[in-house]
Amino acid sequence: MTQKKAEILLAAVIAARATSLLFSKIAMNGMGIFNLLAARFLMAFVLLAVVFFKRLRHIKRHTLVRGATMGALFFLMLSTELTGLKSTPSSTVSLLENTAIILVPMAEAVLRHKLPKAVTAVSALVAIGGVALLTGQSGGFTPGMVLAVMAAVLYAAAIITTDRFSHEDDPLTLGIVQVGTLGLLALVSSFVFEAPHLPQSGTQWLMIAGLAVICTGFGFTLQPVAQSHTTAQRAGLFCALSPACATLLGAAVLREHISVMGMCGIALILLSLLVPQLWQLAEKKGITLLPRHAVPAVRRA
C-alpha cells in the first residue's frame, strides 16, 4: 500500500469514527458509559474474530501484548471522552479532543530530540485554525472540557504508540486485539462501577450496531493498517477531519445550521491536509518556501 492510499484509508477511518459522538450521545440515554463501550467493542470483536479466525489462531505473544497496550490507551481515552460528553456539547468535546493535532508533532519532536519539519508545523497551524473556526466556543473551562483535554492527551499517546507498533508488527491483528482488549476492560469496569445490561430499545441496538460496525470494526481496526504506511505526524493531522465530519453529519442528520465561519473552518481543515502536497509541488517548481530543517536537531542532554 502506498502512503497516498494509506492516507485515504486513514481519512475514511477518521470520518467513520467521527460518527461515534452522535451514536454515543443517543445510546447513552439509558446506558452507562462502560456498559456502552463493552457492548460496542465486544460485538465488534466477535464479528472480527469470526472473519479473521485463521489469523488469530497463530497470534504471537508480542502481538498480543502490543495490541493490548493500544487497547488500554484507547479505553482510557474513550472513557474520559464519554464522561465529558455527558455534560458538554459534542462539538466542544470534538474540538478539545482533536487538539491532538498539535500534541502529536510536539510529542514526536521531544521523543526524537528535534523540532518538527516546517511543513508539518504549517499544516498543524492551518488545521487547528480550521478546528477553532468550526467549533469555537466561549466561556471558561468546565469539568467536561477538562476531561476532553485529558482525552486529547491520551489520543495523542495512542496515535504515537500505534505508529510505533504498527511498523513493527501485523497491523490488522494489532487492531483486532486492541478492540477485544477495550471491550474486556469496559466489561470489567461496567461490573465494578455500573449495573450492566443489554440495550433496552431498538434505537439503542441500532446505535450500538452502528458503533460496532462503522466506528469500531472499520474505524479502530483499520487505523493501525493505515498508520503502518504513514507517519505519526501525518496521522495526527488527520484528526482535524473528525470535527469537520461531525459538523457535516450534524447538519445532515440533526438539521443543524453551519455558519459561514463553520464553512471556512471546514475549508481550512481540508487545506491543512493538502499543505504537504502543495509544499512539495512548489519546491519541485523551484519556489523556495521555509526550509524543511530550519531549526537544527535538539541535542541530547
TrEMBL record:
PANTHER family per the UniProt record, alphabetical: EAMA DOMAIN-CONTAINING PROTEIN (PTHR42920:SF5), OS03G0707200 PROTEIN-RELATED (PTHR42920)
Spans traversing the lipid bilayer: 34-53, 118-135, 141-160, 172-193, 205-223, 235-254, 260-279
Keywords, ordered alphabetically: Cell membrane, Membrane, Transmembrane, Transmembrane helix
GO cellular component, one term: plasma membrane
UniProt name for this protein: EamA family transporter
Transmembrane keyword on record: yes
Cited InterPro entries: Diverse_Substrate_Transporter (IPR051258), EamA_dom (IPR000620), EmrE-like (IPR037185)
Membrane topology: Multi-pass membrane protein
Organism lineage string: Bacteria, Bacillati, Bacillota, Clostridia, Eubacteriales
Subcellular location: Cell membrane
Family: Belongs to the EamA transporter family.
Annotated ranges, domain EamA: 7-135, 143-274
